[in-house]
């Protein structure tokens, strides 16, 4: 995944994501590589250690669901609503910025 795409998925600024990526790389959990077809783009990928950590942590989301008493379907609904709210707030803020410009 490109750093730009990762920042978009996380809804974080590129400048915020870069130090996080550097720390994960320093800890051996991921690696950064320039794309061969476009060296301006940097891609990140999990290392073997990063994949192992991902596998170990895969049980955490269901445990959180159990702790809050929600079914997987309810959690999916909650996630969808949170995404929709974020999109709506971003759209509202963009419209407000255009009106004041």
Average pLDDT score: 91
Major beta sheet summary? 2 strands, antiparallel
What is the CA-CA span between the terminal residues? Answer: 34 Å
- Quaternary status: single chain
Strand order of the largest sheet: 1-2
Order of helices and strands: HHEEHHH
What is the 3D shape? flat
- The structure class reads mainly alpha
What integer value in Å does the Rg equal?
18 Å
What is the helix fraction of residues, given as a range? 55-70%
How many H/I helices?
5
Strand content: 5-15%
Note poorly predicted spans.
none
Strand segment tally: 2
What's the arrangement of secondary structure elements?
Elements: H1 3-10, H2 14-26, E1 30-34, E2 42-46, H3 48-57, H4 60-68, H5 72-100
Antiparallel strand pairs: 1-2
Descriptive notes:
There is one protein chain. The chain has 101 residues and is mainly alpha-helical. The protein is 68% helix and 10% strand. It has five helices and two strands, in the order H-H-E-E-H-H-H. It has helices at 3-10, 14-26, 48-57, 60-68, 72-100, and strands at residues 30-34, 42-46. A two-stranded antiparallel ribbon has the order 1-2. A hairpin with a 7-residue loop joins strand 1 (30-34) and strand 2 (42-46). Helix 1 (3-10) crosses helix 2. The longest helix has 29 residues, at 72-100. The radius of gyration is 18 Å and the shape is flat. It starts with a helix and ends with a helix. The mean pLDDT is 91.
């Amino acid at each position: 995944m490109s750093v730009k795409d990762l920042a978009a998925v996380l809804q974080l600024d590129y400048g915020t994501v870069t130090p996080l990526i550097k720390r994960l790389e320093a800890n051996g959990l991921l690696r950064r590589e320039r794309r061969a077809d476009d060296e301006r783009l940097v891609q990140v990928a999990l290392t073997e250690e990063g994949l192992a950590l991902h596998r170990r942590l895969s049980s955490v989301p269901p445990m959180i669901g159990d702790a809050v008493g929600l079914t997987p379907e309810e959690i999916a609904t909650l996630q969808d609503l949170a995404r929709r709210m974020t999109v709506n707030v971003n759209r509202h803020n963009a419209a407000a910025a255009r009106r004041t410009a």
